[in-house]
Amino acid sequence: MRNMRWIVILLCFLAISVNYVDRANLAVAAPQIQKALSIGPAQMGLILSGFFWTYALMQLPFGWFVDRVGARIALPLAVGWWSLFTALTASVSSAAAMFGCRLMLGVGEAGAYPSCAKLVSQWFKPAQRAFATSIFDSGSRVGSALSIPIVALIIGTLGWEASFVITGAVGFVWVLGWFLIYRNPSRGDLTGEPDAVLPPQTVPTQKVTWLSLFKHRTTWGMMLGFFCLNFAIYFFITWFPSYLVQTRGFSLKSLGTLGMIPALFAIPSGWLGGFVSDALYRRGWSLTAARKTCIVGAMLLSSIITLCAFTSDVYLMLAFFAIAYGSLSFAGASIWALPGDVAPTRDHVASLGGIQNFASNLAGIVITTFTGMMVSMTHGSFTIPLCVAGGFCCLGAFSYLVIVKRIEPFSMGGDSDALAESHAHSPV
Asked: What is the 3-state secondary structure (H, E, C) of the chain?
């Protein structure tokens, strides 16, 4: 049980990796699917956005569901559901059917991040959460990076249909492994450990309801800020492969090599973001200063994504994309630690995670549809979407700096978002 916490994080990392391979494989296969099914860029933009409609909407009930039944049941249920509809995508023969499979994929994948945030809050103390979060969250970059060469190889060898069957099957293997390996914290004696899993739970002065979480300014700041981050980050997951092929002239081979650079750079950047955030807190910074410094600084730097539209040098373009993606990942580690940091009780961590992820994934709907429309209207140009993405990065930094208040458990007794600061850490 002493080592189980890191095994849990490894399992979460693998689940998120599979999650992102399954959501990104359509983006990699998009050029081939467009030719096979005679789909235009605007229609493909709508299909790419289909996943985000249900993924965003289902964050709200799924977060509540995770808090009620526990992540031990909710996470494998989610993985099994999305794996089924990933595999079924291979059988479609029309744009409408593919859109339907993407809607169902979003339903299942909605349970992944709330479940993982819940697990981190159960197994790790605040001073360890950002780094633990950075590990499972890096699965999104690993999945995005692996999806390009793996799916490209499968498509080139077996066809685009096989890419969905194979990646869907991997998810069912994960579900089997989860039930064989995972044990709940209560099943082992962790009370004698020097780094016991959780401090005493805060007891709210009033009954905490799901709707009451929306009364707090910090909740809305987290929603807006995460929306802005995902507006930029979902460009990499949806339109980035098409951008490299259609605008930069990449072949399928170069897409599977050079196209991996931004996602590969983002993996250690996320780990570094979690490490720095926790290290600042352990060195005496307030949790507010530690989390906000990492989030705001990184989001400002990520606005460099706009410069990708104004350079003709391929390698400089890839460098700008890598810095942007890396900065977004650096910020993401602290962002996904926030639900555990500010939730009024342990029973509301997944709910709060689902709320912020609901807002963030509305950006997936906007960026996919908006980019498709702009590419059609400007005859293949991605300049406007990349400029808008940079602007949203700056807006996100403002939201976390100004709208989000102190990073500490919500006080449910009134309008204040703050409880007394921990005696162990003074505000900076």
From this structure: CCCHHHHHHHHHHHHHHHHHHHHHHHHHHHHHHHHHHCCCHHHHHHHHHHHHHHHHHCHHHHHHHHHHHCHHHHHHHHHHHHHHHHHHHHHCCCHHHHHHHHHHHHHHHCCHHHHHHHHHHHHCCHHHHHHHHHHHHHHHHHHHHHHHHHHHHHHHHHCHHHHHHHHHHHHHHHHHHHHHHCCCHHHCCCCCCCCCCCCCCCCCCCCCCCHHHHHCHHHHHHHHHHHHHHHHHHHHHHCHHHHHHHCCCCCHHHHCCHHHHHHHHHHHHHHHHHHHHHHHHHCCCCHHHHHHHHHHHHHHHHHHHHHHHHCCCHHHHHHHHHHHHHHHHHHHHHHHHHHHHHCCCHHHHHHHHHHHHHHHHHHHHHHHHHHHHHHHHCCCCCHHHHHHHHHHHHHHHHHHHHHCCCCCCCCCCCCCCCCCCCCCCCCC
